[in-house]
Amino acid sequence: MSSSKNPSRSTGSRGRSADQKAAPKKAAARKRVDKADRPGRICPACGGVQPGAEGRAKSSKPTGLRIRQAGRAATARPAPAATAKRADSAAAPVEPTAPPAPAEAPAPAPAEAPAPAPARVPVDAPTLIKGIVERVPAALSEAAAGDAPPSSALTAAVRKAVLDEFRTRAAFTGRVAEMDALLWTQPDHGGPAVRASMADHLKALGIRRLDTPDQAEAFVVTEGTGEAFELLRPAYVDELTGKVILAGQLRRIAPDAAQHTTGEDA
Q1: What mean pLDDT is predicted for residues 142-156?
Q2: pLDDT tens per residue across span 107-118
Q3: CB 148 within 8 A of CB 140
Q4: Who contacts 120 (Cβ-Cβ below 8 Å, separation ≥6)?
Q5: CB 207 within 8 A of CB 178
Q6: Looking at CB atoms within 10 Å, which of 28, 33, 139, 169 has the fewest?
Q7: Virtual CA dihedral for 164, 167, 173, 178, nearest 10 degrees?
Q8: Roughly how many angstroms between the first and final C-alpha of the chain, as a whole number?
C-alpha cells in the first residue's frame, strides 16, 4: 500500500492526528520546575520561604523537606533528665556503700551538787520587837492613818503581839515534838508511812530532830554508869529561835555494851 493512499501516515501538517498535536503541550507540562522557582521552598542559605517564579502562596501541604527536617529535629531532641540519669546509673558500676555510723550520743554533763541551804539565823523576841517598833511610826505616817499612838503604848502592843506569837509557836512545836518522840520509841518508829509523814511535818515547821548524842546540851543523862551513852529519846531544836523544844534522854553504859541508835536529822 502506497503512502499516498494512507492519510494518517502523511508527514504534512494536514495529516497530523490530535494526539500528535497535544504531545508538545504535555511535554511542557511534564517539564520539571527548577528548585529556585518552586513556591514555598525553604532557602538553604537564609532559611526563608521562597515565593517561587510565579509568586504563588505557600501550599498548606507540608513539603518533603519540611517532613525530613521535622524528623531530624525529633531524633536529635535531647533525652529527658530522668532517662539520662537512668542510663548513667545503668552504665556505672554500683559500689557497695557502708552503712552510716551511728551518731554518738553526747556525754551527759556532770550533775552539779545542789547548793547547801543557807543556815537560818535564830530570831529572838527582843530583837523582833525592837525592829517592829522602829518601823511602825514611819508606816503609819506614809499611810496617813492620822495621829500616831504614843511610843510607850506602841511598844507595849507590839511586845504583847510578838510574845503571844512566840508562845503559840513554842506550844505547837512542843506538842509535835512530843508526838514524834513517842512514835520514835515504838517498834519500827511507827512504820515507814508514819515516819516519812512526821519527817515532812518537822521539816515544814523548822524543827530539827537530833538522834545522836553529838550536842550534849540538848540531852539529859537520866541513869546508868560508864563513859558511853545509849539514846533513849531524841532531842528537838527549833531552827527559828535556836532553842531546844524538847530535850533528849541518854543513859550511861559501859563502852563494851554501847548500843547507839543512829538516824538522820529531820
Answers
A1: 72
A2: 666 666 666 666
A3: yes
A4: 206, 239, 240
A5: no
A6: 28
A7: -140
A8: 162
Confidence band, pLDDT 50/70/90 cuts, at residue 38: confident
3-state secondary structure of 207: strand
What is the distance between the alpha carbons of residues 40 and 33, in angstroms, rounded to a whole number?
Answer: 13
Tens-digit pLDDT profile for residues 193-231: 888 899 999 999 999 999 888 888 889 988 888 888 888
**C-alpha cell recorded at residue 49:** 520561604
Q: Do 232 and 251 contact (CB within 8 A), yes or no?
A: yes
Q: Is residue 236 within 8 Å of residue 206, measured between CB atoms?
A: no
Contact call for residues 177 and 170 (beta carbons, < 8 A): no
Burial of 104-139, coded b for 16+ CB within 10 Å and e otherwise, reads: eeeeeeeeeeeeeeeeeeeeeeeebbeebbeebeee
Interstrand relation of 41-42 and 207-210 (parallel, antiparallel or unpaired) = unpaired
The pTM (predicted TM-score) of the whole model is 0.48
